[in-house]
Amino acid sequence: MKKITKLSIAGLVIAGLVGAVAPLPAVASPGCVDQSEFKKIKNGMTKARVAKLVGTKGELFSAAGSGRFKFEVRSYDACTEFGIVSVGFMGGKVESKTGVF
C-alpha cells in the first residue's frame, strides 16, 4: 500500500490548479440550458447549432406541417430546479423561444 505524504498531496493540488487554467469546454452546462446560453439562441439558428450551444438536442414536444413548412417545438431542461426552455423551429431554424428559470 502506498503512503500518502504532504508532498504527494501538494502535487495533486498543483496538478489541479494547472488543470483549472485549461480552456473551458464550449458547453458551460451540458444537459441543461442556463440563462446565458438561452440569451445566445437567436432566430434563424439551426437545430444543430442550438444543440451544440446548449449541449443537448432536447426532446421533441410537438410537431406539425410537412416538408419545409414543418414546425416543431423542442423542450430542454433549464439549469434550475423547476425551469424549462422551449424552442420553436420552422423548417429546422429557430422561430421562437421561451424560458422559465
CATH topology: Beta-lactamase Inhibitory Protein, Chain:B, domain 1
Instruction: Give the structural class.
Output: alpha+beta
SS elements, strand count? 4
Strand content: 25-35%
Overall form: globular
The percent of residues in helical segments reads: 25-40%
How far do the termini sit from each other? 49 Å
Main beta sheet = 4 strands, antiparallel
Alpha plus pi helix count:
3
Q: What order do the SSEs take from the amino end to the carboxyl end, as H and E?
A: HHHEEEE
List the strand order in the largest sheet: 1-2-3-4
CATH architecture: 2-Layer Sandwich
- Parts with pLDDT < 50 across at least 5 consecutive residues: 5-25
Classified by CATH, the class is Alpha Beta
Alpha-carbon Rg, integer:
20 Å
Count of spatially separate domains: 1
Can you put this structure into words, describing what you see?
With 101 residues, the chain is an alpha+beta fold. It has one domain (28-100): 2-Layer Sandwich (Beta-lactamase Inhibitory Protein, Chain:B, domain 1), CATH 3.30.1450.10. 29% of the residues lie in helices and 28% in strands. It has a four-stranded antiparallel sheet, with no helix packed on it. Strand 3 (84-90) and strand 4 form a beta hairpin. The chain starts with 5 loop residues before the first helix and ends with a strand.
